[in-house]
TrEMBL record:
Provenance organism: Araneus ventricosus (Orbweaver spider)
A biological process from GO: methylation
UniProt entry keywords in alphabetical sequence: Methyltransferase, Transferase
Domain of life of the source: Eukaryota
Pfam families per the UniProt record, alphabetical: Transposase_1
Gene that produces this protein: SETMAR_198
Protein name per UniProt: Histone-lysine N-methyltransferase SETMAR
Gene Ontology MF, one: nucleic acid binding
PANTHER family: MARINER MOS1 TRANSPOSASE-LIKE PROTEIN
Length: 345
């Protein structure tokens, strides 16, 4: 919330207008007008930290004895999760266990690839998109979410590697045991690429490319024409209610010929900020689960891989797709509150 105040203040929006917009999105129980003016003054005075300053208070229930017991248990199995530790120490709350593990002992290491280190200038675009999205959602609610059609491309190998999350280990610093080698899965020479489009109700289109074919603007337009035909057959009500296309700004998507086709068909397109896979439902929801579920699997042919994808998509419940679109609200809200930085979860 404070990041949003700082963002709007940088755009010379008056405190009273900031308060009005926040009330419109979050309701009457949002931050008071006086508190907003306070944060505007502090921002104008040069404050950049939007978090509370450290302050004294009641001492934590965490003590050295608890830390030692938890540390001993983790050393027995460095792939312990907080939930597993809670089963071993039911007398300690999950919050206290999380404090012990992350602040007093270890960090669970798992690299997360991001496309770019965001500068303050980059962060203004996700902030602006977040404000637009949440305002639209505040006005239209689920009717807005029901209009969203999202899609992206993914590369599917004949040998699917295991996800990093499945191999996370607690790192106890220099005092821990030597890191075990993790051998790379044999690289697959055969990969197939497909475009997947879906909405809150389920899968709309799975479009596989031929071997050696790549995604360019012309191929992207072919896929979009197929998508429009599928929507006409599967989602006739969408034609009347309107469609909001949500995909990233990769070069084939943002090319002039692609944009002209979208305008020609009269489709609304929600602007997606650059370098923001964390705000793309296919990346943070659909493809993430696909790669987790297919980790370690092998396929013998193109048809075998395609059938595997189709069967997996058909097995997903409708609630899975609804959840993926609904997460956009939470993620854009987090984007506002962390100042436009990447949303990790």
């Amino acid at each position: 919330m404070r990041s949003l105040i700082r963002f709007l203040n940088a755009k010379n929006v008056k405190p009273a207008e900031i308060h009005r917009q926040l009330v419109e999105i979050y309701g009457e129980n949002v931050m008071t007008d006086g508190m907003i003016r306070k944060w505007v003054r502090q921002s104008n005075d040069g404050r950049t930290n939007v978090h509370d300053e450290a302050r004294s208070g009641r001492s934590s229930v965490v003590n050295d004895g608890l830390v030692a017991k938890v540390n001993a248990k983790i050393r027995e199995n460095r792939r312990f999760t907080i939930r597993m530790l809670y089963e071993e120490f039911p007398q300690i709350s999950k919050t206290a266990l999380h404090e012990i593990v992350t602040n007093r002992l270890n960090r669970k290491l798992c690299s997360c690839w991001v496309p770019k280190m965001l500068t303050d200038a980059h962060k203004t675009k996700p902030l602006g998109c977040a404000l637009t999205f949440l305002t639209r959602y505040s006005e239209d609610g689920n009717e807005f979410l029901n209009k969203i059609v999202t899609g992206d491309e993914t590369c599917h190998g004949f040998v699917m590697s295991l996800q990093n999350q499945n191999n996370c280990r607690w790192n106890g610093g220099t005092h821990g045991p030597p890191q075990q080698n993790k051998f790379k899965t044999t690289s697959s020479a055969h990969k197939i690429m497909c475009s997947v489009f879906w909405d809150r109700q389920g899968i709309l289109l799975v479009d596989f490319l031929s071997r050696g074919e790549t995604i360019n603007a012309v191929r992207c337009c072919e896929t979009l024409r197929k998508l429009w035909r599928v929507i006409q057959n599967k989602r006739r009500g969408m034609q009347r209610q309107g469609i909001v296309l949500l995909h990233d700004n990769a070069r084939p998507h943002s090319a002039g010929v692609t944009q002209n086709l979208i305008q020609q068909f009269g489709r609304e397109q929600f602007y997606h900020p650059p370098y923001s896979p964390d705000l793309t439902p296919s990346n943070y929801h659909l493809f993430l689960k696909l790669k987790r579920d297919f980790g370690g699997r092998r396929f013998e042919s193109d048809d075998d891989a395609k059938n595997g994808v189709h069967q997996w998509l058909s097995s997903l419940a409708a609630s899975f797709f609804e959840e993926g679109i609904d997460k956009l609200v939470l993620r854009y809200d987090k984007c506002l509150n962390n100042g436009g930085s990447y949303v990790e979860k």
